[in-house]
Every structure is written in structure tokens, then in C-alpha cells.
Amino acid sequence: MDLRPHHLLCTQGYSGKGYSEEFVDNMNRLTAQLRGEEPVRIQLCFSTDDLCTCCPNKQGENQCSTNEKVLRFDRKTVEYFQLEEREYIYQELIAQIQKKVTPEMLADICSDCAWYPVSACKEKILKRYHENRS
Ligand code: SF4
Ligand code: SF4
User: Fold this and answer.
1) pTM surpassing 0.70?
2) Which of ligand 2's atoms lies nearest the C-alpha of 55?
3) Closest ligand 1 atom to the C-alpha of 12?
4) CB 109 within 8 A of CB 77
């Protein structure tokens, strides 16, 4: 599965809402696989990915209607979590990200995403952070 960097966060935060019915169907299928017990090999790609494929905002290869924003989300995710454009096991990478992520990092990456104030992203992505402090 191809995933762009900030989608490592979105696939953790996703709770069933999305841009269109096709997008939601695709997200449901991919997140079910990613959240399963079976390790999933992913290719981290610095471009449009398997989530973008079914998104009405995709305008072409590496072209999203909010490209400036999503490229910034990608860049910050790469910087915070020291990511490379290569293969990973999704569950291992998420475990590493969850060890490092803080509320400040997430706000810096995501705060101007339209989903940030209304979705479960903060709660889900920061679950481990809060568990370690309770
Ligand atoms: S707030 Fe937006 S960019 Fe951040 S994880 Fe959620 S959907 Fe993705
Ligand atoms: S909004 Fe852009 S980056 Fe996000 S899934 Fe759609 S095409 Fe991809």
C-alpha cells in the first residue's frame, strides 16, 4: 500500500467521515487492513497515494486541490518523525510515531486541517501520549 507521510496520522485518526462516499468506502477498507493484527507492508511515498486515489480533491499525480497545505503536512510529518521514502511495516512505524508524538507536534502539523477541530484525530493519535501520563 502506498501512503504519503501525513496519512500515517490520518489513518490513525479516521473515524468514518470523509470527502465522498467513494473516499469513505476506500478509507474503511484500507484502515481495516492497517488496524488489523497482520503486519502491513507500506511504501512511504512523497506524492499522492492509495487514499488520494478515491478522493475528489485529487487532480492528478502529486496534485491535490489543497496541495500547498498537504505538502506542508507531509513535510512536517517527515521532519518530526524522521521518515524516508521507503518501505515500512505500518504497525511498527505507528508504534514509533506514537512514542514520539506530542500535542504540540500534532497541532503544528494539523491545526489548519478542516478535520482537526471536528474529528477524532487528536483523541486517537494522542491516546498513548495521555495514557503514559495518567
Ligand atoms: S487533523 Fe487532518 S491532517 Fe491531521 S490527522 Fe486528522 S485528517 Fe489528517
Ligand atoms: S485531500 Fe488531497 S492529500 Fe488528502 S486524500 Fe484528498 S487528494 Fe489526497
Assistant:
1) yes
2) 6
3) 5
4) yes
